[in-house]
């Protein structure tokens, strides 16, 4: 019965329109739209990857080997299960133009192909020609190249260049490579040649760093999962890695998922800011309804009926806001689909995806419940006789216990939902803790700012403008709280991102060059290592040379169990890893646990594993690790753990074995060279001329490639943070709008006492600036704390406050509050004092 009465009252209240709820709707809609939009774009990318998986992969399925080609037996089986087969190799090399001192060199990711390539998709070249014609060449074999590399080397079609000792003629530049997204991240631009034209080049010698890929088309209706199982069972222990069209670009898919999940967490920050606005809007609305509530109580309405009346009303408006957000989240990606698709190097399919919309709706409902429950519950705590004036302000700070418990349950459910949807409990829980911590800090700060303003009022004697501003900040709870919480949380997110981004860039630009080598040299053949060292050790410009033998292997089992069942999707067991051997650790190796093998050890294979990675996958001393090298399984016992610092860009191996375990296997050497910058070009020229098969990776160029990737990620995250800040600005507008009545009365009193409009306006502006500066300073503190935690514990880099970003945060806070505050100041200034004061009698 009470529900029916409450529903009737709520329906009648809603007839009054949306006055006072525009900001409420905007805050909720914007947060929901951000989450729905990110989810819709992610689903469009996932659909594109799934639909075009075969083209991205270059076939229906692919078998991949490290350091070797498929054996005759393996190739025969691959041909038997396929309708088409193409053999491809992928490796890094140096493209060289010219000779001796005038030679130009550029790092390139080489793809060598056969006549069957591409099985699927189409290669588009400039000038337009078939790939087969381009690779035929003329006097020398032909090649095609990415435009950026051709421009860097000054090459035009018809010009010649070298890969190793082989000469090639550039026939065309690459416009579209159908399977480039499936190839993953490369350190250099693409060059494509035929595999047979590399004979004698020294680039595919035994032990060289290359991967062979066998792409296949299969008969329609073939069960790809069953084919995968058969391949893995038949060739278990040979190091074969299998992919099929259901996961054509796993690296891209994984990256998109991780970035999208992080952006959803940023979106949750926006919803939290919007929730503050929702809570403030509900509180302000109920404050205006005290007369109505008092009348209903006088007429015998129970507390339950009153609560349900406004719960249903707010609930209906919340559903409207969520619906608007879902509409925007679905429509905006569709509207901008051509722009998004043009900016992405992978296929996307834009349509309506129910999944992300449902996810955003769940977030919206939980957020609306979480932030409206307390303002609604507080109406139960006030007696009818006191509802006619400042009823809600006179209620106790906490509502009834059942509402506190319900709030805790809602918060737990919201966090649980975020963990499930994101798939990354650690980051989600840390993000949630950060948001809650920021809210606690900002709430305490808001109370402290009000108290400080009250104490400072006497100090401002003789300065009426300042005194009025301080009095308003200290006496008006809602304004200070809403400004500091809403704007502060938005600025905190932006400040944290600014600090993280700035420190990461500083680590790359300032710290890394001091500890990173000049060059990474790979594919040094065993018979070249002595001459290589002789050249460098006699060069006074070289301060340090590190070398190590290297093979690559795939971890297949841990203690006899499939490695991925033990370690999950950890990067150590995903793909092949570098492996080395040494008789004894050098002076920079720190063994943290266990014992190194004796220098003359000649027993069963032993392995020293990187400590941090071992902890992450649960390894202990005595565990057995089986890895495949060149088709051969080697099982070694973990006898020690050691610290490995991968952040220096130097040589670092997860796995190091005793020499007799690997010494007989074909392998090459890698080396890092630390030299004076002005000597780097000369060192590269001398070594490349003497050993054309060696590939040199300039560390600065590799860092620049990573920086480009980080820039794209940072831009996406900053846009997400900007949406959070926009929501905070909407809350400011709502707070300013809600305070118009109080400002009108204040202005009327001041005018009556002789204050001019100019001085009153100055007071309003000073009030807004002080609140904005306070919010900015507090947000900066929270952002610095968050940035320090992420930099220190997640990225493991140093941390220093980025003052340029910090100043921008404070100025942004002042500017936002000034715009929002002064935008609603003109009506109070224009009101006539007599009319206002008579209305308050």
Q: Unreliable runs, pLDDT <50, ≥5 residues?
A: none
Profile the largest sheet: 6 strands, mixed, barrel
Strand content: 15-25%
Order of strands across the biggest sheet? 2-3-8-5-7-6
Through-space gap between termini? 40 Å
Helix content: 55-70%
E-strand count: 21
> What is Rg?
33 Å
Number of domains: 4
Give the integer mean of the pLDDT values.
80
Counting DSSP H or I runs of 4 or more residues, the number of helices is 28
Subcellular location: Cell membrane
Main location: membrane
Domain ABC3 transporter permease C-terminal: 266-378, 722-828
Transmembrane segments: 262-286, 307-340, 360-377, 398-421, 427-453, 769-791, 803-826
Question: Can you describe what's shown?
Answer:
It is a single chain. The protein is of the alpha+beta class and 841 residues long. The chain has four domains: 1-60 and 253-423, no CATH class; 61-221, no CATH class; 438-516 and 699-841, no CATH class; 542-675, no CATH class. The strands form two sheets. A six-stranded mixed barrel has the order 2-3-8-5-7-6. Strands 12-14-19-16-18-17 form a six-stranded mixed β-barrel. Helix 8 (250-288) packs antiparallel against helix 17 (477-515) and helix 12 runs antiparallel to helix 14 (401-422). The chain is elongated and about 100 Å long. The two termini are 40 Å apart.
């Amino acid at each position: 019965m009470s529900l029916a009465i409450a529903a009737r009252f709520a329906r009648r209240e809603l007839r009054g329109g949306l006055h006072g709820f525009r900001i409420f709707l905007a805050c909720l809609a914007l947060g929901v739209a951000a989450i729905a939009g990110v989810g819709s774009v992610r689903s469009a990318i996932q659909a594109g990857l799934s639909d075009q998986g075969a083209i991205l992969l270059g076939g229906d399925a692919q078998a991949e080997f490290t350091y070797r080609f498929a054996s005759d037996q393996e190739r025969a089986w691959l041909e038997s299960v396929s309708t088409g087969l193409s053999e491809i190799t992928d490796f890094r090399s140096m493209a060289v133009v010219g000779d001796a001192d005038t030679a130009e060199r550029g790092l390139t990711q080489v793809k060598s192909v056969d006549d069957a390539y591409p099985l699927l998709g189409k290669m588009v070249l400039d000038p337009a020609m078939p790939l087969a014609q381009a690779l035929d060449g003329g006097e020398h074999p032909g090649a095609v190249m990415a435009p950026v590399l051709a421009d860097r080397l000054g090459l035009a079609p018809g010009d010649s260049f070298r890969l190793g000792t082989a000469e090639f003629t550039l026939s065309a530049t690459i416009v579209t490579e159908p399977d480039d997204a499936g190839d993953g991240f490369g350190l250099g631009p693409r060059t494509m040649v035929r595999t047979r034209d590399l004979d004698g080049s020294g680039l595919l010698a035994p032990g060289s760093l290359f991967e062979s890929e066998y792409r296949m088309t299969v008969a329609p209706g073939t069960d790809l999962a069953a084919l995968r199982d058969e391949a893995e069972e038949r060739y278990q222990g040979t190091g074969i890695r299998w992919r099929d069209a259901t996961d054509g670009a796993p690296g891209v898919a994984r990256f998109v998922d991780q970035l999208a999940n992080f952006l959803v967490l940023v979106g949750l920050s926006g919803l939290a800011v919007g929730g503050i606005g929702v809570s403030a809007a509900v509180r302000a609305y109920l404050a205006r309804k005290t007369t109505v509530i008092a009348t209903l109580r006088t007429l015998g309405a129970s507390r339950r009926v009153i609560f349900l009346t406004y719960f249903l009303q707010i609930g209906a408006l919340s559903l409207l806001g969520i619906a608007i957000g879902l509409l925007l989240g679905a429509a905006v990606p569709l509207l901008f689909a051509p722009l998004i698709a043009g900016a992405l190097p992978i296929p996307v399919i834009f349509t309506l995806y129910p999944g992300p919309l449902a996810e955003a709706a769940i977030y919206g409902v939980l957020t609306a419940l979480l932030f409206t429950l307390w303002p609604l519950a507080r109406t139960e705590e006030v007696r009818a006789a006191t509802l006619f004036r400042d009823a809600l302000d006179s209620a106790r700070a906490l509502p009834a216990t059942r509402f506190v418990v319900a709030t805790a349950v809602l918060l737990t459910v919201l966090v649980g939902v975020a963990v499930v949807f994101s798939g990354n409990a650690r980051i989600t829980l840390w993000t949630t803790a950060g948001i809650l911590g920021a809210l606690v800090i900002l709430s305490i700060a808001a109370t402290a700012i009000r108290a400080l303003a009250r104490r400072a009022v006497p100090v401002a004697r003789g300065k009426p403008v300042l005194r009025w501003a301080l009095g308003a900040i200290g006496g008006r709870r809602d304004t200070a709280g809403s400004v500091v919480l809403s704007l502060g949380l938005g600025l905190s997110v932006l400040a944290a991102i600014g600090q993280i981004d700035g420190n990461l860039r500083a680590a790359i630009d300032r710290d890394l060059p001091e500890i990173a080598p000049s060059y990474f040299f790979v594919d040094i053949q065993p018979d070249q290592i002595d001459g290589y060292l002789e050249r460098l050790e006699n060069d006074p410009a070289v301060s340090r040379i590190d070398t190590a033998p290297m093979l690559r292997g795939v971890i297949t089992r841990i203690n006899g169990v499939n490695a991925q069942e033990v370690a999950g999707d950890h990067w150590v067991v995903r793909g092949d890893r570098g492996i080395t051997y040494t008789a004894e650790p050098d002076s920079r190796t720190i063994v943290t646990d266990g014992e190194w093998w004796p220098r003359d050890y000649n027993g069963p294979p032993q392995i020293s594993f990187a400590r941090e990675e071992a902890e992450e996958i649960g390894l202990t001393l005595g565990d057995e690790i089986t890895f495949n090298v060149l088709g051969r399984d080697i099982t070694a016992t973990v006898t020690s753990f050691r610290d490995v610092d991968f952040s220096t860009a130097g040589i670092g191996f997860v796995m190091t074995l005793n020499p007799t375990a690997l010494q007989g296997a074909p392998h090459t050497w890698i080396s890092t060279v630390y030299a004076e910058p002005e000597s780097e070009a000369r060192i590269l020229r001398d070594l490349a001329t003497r050993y054309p098969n060696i590939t040199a990776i300039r560390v600065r160029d590799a860092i620049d490639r990573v920086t480009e990737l980080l820039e794209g990620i940072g831009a996406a995250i900053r846009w997400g943070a900007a949406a959070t800040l926009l929501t905070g600005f909407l809350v400011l507008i709502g707070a300013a709008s809600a305070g118009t009545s109080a400002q009108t009365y204040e202005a009327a009193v001041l005018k009556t006492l002789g204050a001019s409009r100019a001085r009153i306006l100055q007071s309003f502006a000073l009030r807004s600036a002080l609140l904005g500066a306070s919010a900015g300073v507090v947000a900066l503190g929270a952002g610095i704390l968050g940035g320090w935690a992420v930099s220190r514990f997640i990225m493991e880099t140093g941390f220093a406050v980025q003052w340029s970003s910090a100043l921008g945060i404070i100025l942004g806070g002042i500017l936002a509050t000034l715009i929002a505050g002064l935008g609603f100041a003109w009506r109070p200034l224009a009101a006539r004092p007599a009319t206002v004061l008579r209305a308050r009698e």
